[in-house]
């Protein structure tokens, strides 16, 4: 199983980035795919996640209205469009895939928990600075 993130970089406050996560080695539509982030000295936190099979989505309150998650099952890819970026959004962003408990959390509108996700990418750095 491999998850490969891309799209990170340096952006000024108020700017936009689109992260991509290509998933291979598992049945894409049988998994939830989530985006997590970890800033220096902080715990890894769930930002947004999606169940590709039915399109159910979750957004953390800190990113609602600014970030949009989407998926393309034909390409086994999940995207995170990030607009109106703030310095507090700066972190390493990780893509992760999980099965039953991760999917259940999305359905119940629970914040995604790292321990519910079995497979992880290596992360992509997002820096928000002027």
Query: Could you say which overall geometry the principal axes of the C-alpha atoms support?
Result: globular
Radius of gyration computed on alpha carbons: 13 Å
- Detail the poorly predicted runs: none
Overall pLDDT confidence:
96
Provide the helix percentage: under 10%
Classify the oligomer: single chain
Main beta-sheet strand count, sense and barrel state: 7 strands, mixed
The sequence of SSEs as H and E is EEEEEEEEEHEE
What amount of the residues lies in strands? over 45%
Count helical runs: 1
Number of strands: 11
Q: Helix/strand-derived class?
A: mainly beta
Distance between the termini: 37 Å
How would you describe this structure to a colleague?
- This protein has one helix spanning 100-107, and strands spanning 2-6, 9-11, 17-24, 32-38, 45-51, 56-59, 67-72, 77-82, 91-98, 119-120, 124-128.
- By secondary structure, the protein is mostly beta strands.
- The strands form two sheets. Strands 2, 4, 5, 6, 9, 10 and 11 form a seven-stranded mixed sheet that branches. A four-stranded antiparallel sheet has the order 1-3-8-7, with no helix packed on it.
- A hairpin with a 6-residue loop joins β4 and β5.
- The longest helix has 8 residues, at 100-107.
- It is globular.
- It starts with a strand and ends with a strand.
Briefly summarize what is shown.
This protein has 130 residues and is mostly beta strands.
Compile the SSE list and pairings.
Blueprint: E1 2-6, E2 9-11, E3 17-24, E4 32-38, E5 45-51, E6 56-59, E7 67-72, E8 77-82, E9 91-98, H1 100-107, E10 119-120, E11 124-128
Parallel strand pairs: 2-11
Antiparallel strand pairs: 1-3, 3-8, 4-5, 4-9, 5-6, 7-8, 9-10, 9-11
């Amino acid at each position: 199983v491999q998850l490969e993130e891309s799209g990170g970089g340096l952006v000024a406050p108020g700017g936009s980035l689109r992260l991509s996560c290509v998933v291979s080695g598992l049945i894409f539509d049988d998994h939830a795919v989530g985006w997590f982030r970890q800033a220096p000295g902080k715990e890894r936190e769930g930002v947004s996640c999606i169940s590709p099979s039915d399109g159910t989505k979750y957004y953390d309150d800190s990113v609602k209205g600014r970030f949009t998650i989407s998926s393309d099952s034909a390409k086994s890819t999940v995207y995170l469009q990030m607009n109106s970026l703030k310095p507090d959004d700066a972190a390493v962003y990780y893509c992760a895939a999980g099965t039953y408990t991760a999917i259940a959390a999305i359905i119940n509108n629970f914040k995604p928990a790292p321990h519910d996700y079995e497979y992880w990418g290596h992360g992509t750095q997002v820096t928000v600075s002027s």
